[in-house]
Amino acid sequence: MARRRSRQGSPFRFEGAVEPDLLIDRREELSTLARRAADRVGVRLAAPRRYGKTSLLVAHAAQLRETGWRTAHVDLGRVSDLTDVARRIAAAYGPLDMDWTRAHLGGLLARLGLSVGTAGASVTIGPRPSTPDAEAAESLLYRLLDLPKTLHDGDGVSTLVVLDEFQDLLTARADLDGLVRSRIQYHGDAAAYVYAGSEPSMMRELFDQRERPLFGQADPLALGPLPAEEVLGELGRRFDDEGLDPGEALGELAAFAGGHPQRIMLLCYLLAEHLEAGRPGTLETAGLVVESAIERTQAAHEALWRQLRRTERVVLAGVADGIPPSSPPLATEHQLGRSTLNEAADRLADQGHLARDRAGVRVIDPLLGEWLRRR
Known about the structure:
Order of helices and strands: HEHEHHEEHHEHHEHEHHHHHHHEEH
Shape: globular
Helix content: 40-55%
Oligomer: single chain
Number of helices: 17
Structural class: alpha/beta
Largest sheet: 5 strands, parallel
Distance between the termini: 38 Å
Strand order of the largest sheet: 2-5-6-1-7
Radius of gyration: 23 Å
Number of strands: 9
Strand content: 5-15%
């Protein structure tokens, strides 16, 4: 779906969210998000890290802004307490109406190490206060969470609110989903909400357990791998626009990536470097690209490996080698019960490292899988 236009830098962006015109496919997901927003139906979007979740939501927000909506994207990743949550929401919500924020919240913001500039539309995040101010944080949250409704009451303009890495709210405080629910349940046409997360088990805990405040409050939407035909067609055009011939290396790398959005972009970025250096787009060059990518990501793989339990290591390495988690030979080799291995596989799936589908179980990150096979 990418639209051709001149730009600076590489068309193979692999760090951070990509611009909407660099998004590959996801037409169905964007259409679903647009319909849910129009109907003011909440959406919960679950996807592994680096799987294009934020890029999709950036494109969704851009589409709504073109039709007159306001948008706010709150990154809740790794928040540790109520103060963190309040600071993140303030930074995202404040620019919705800087005059209102300055007039009504200036004092509370200052107590949490935040400031509103005299010019420009931004809330500046300064150092955290040396002493947490839970009272100020909670007061600020109540006021901010009602801002979309306050603005809509004044001008009739709706707001899209994206709460990214929403599951981390439970880390900050176990009842914060209840606080959020207590405010947004009255917003009606004023706002549409997307709750995005990268840990399926925690997202299910928030939305599928009857005792949680947000039970049944958002339609699920999952991101699958990118379709191979779309990947090859779009990336082939980008290489052509750069005056580069990827040859058979592109197909080889696309097959290796298995539809993983960030990994195929990283591989294509490295392939472009090899082609610009004069190497041909051959299978040998594709192999060199994979070597470069594994070297680039090795530290992250090693860090993950150190964090895993023994049973999780056994399962992850086995799946990388094509061995199902419940395989009797795997259980016998490591003297572990099959139920124990299945429980480890469930944890790895909940953490976003394994995927279960009709074809079986697979390692989501192809570079991690290759790194494991080479251990």
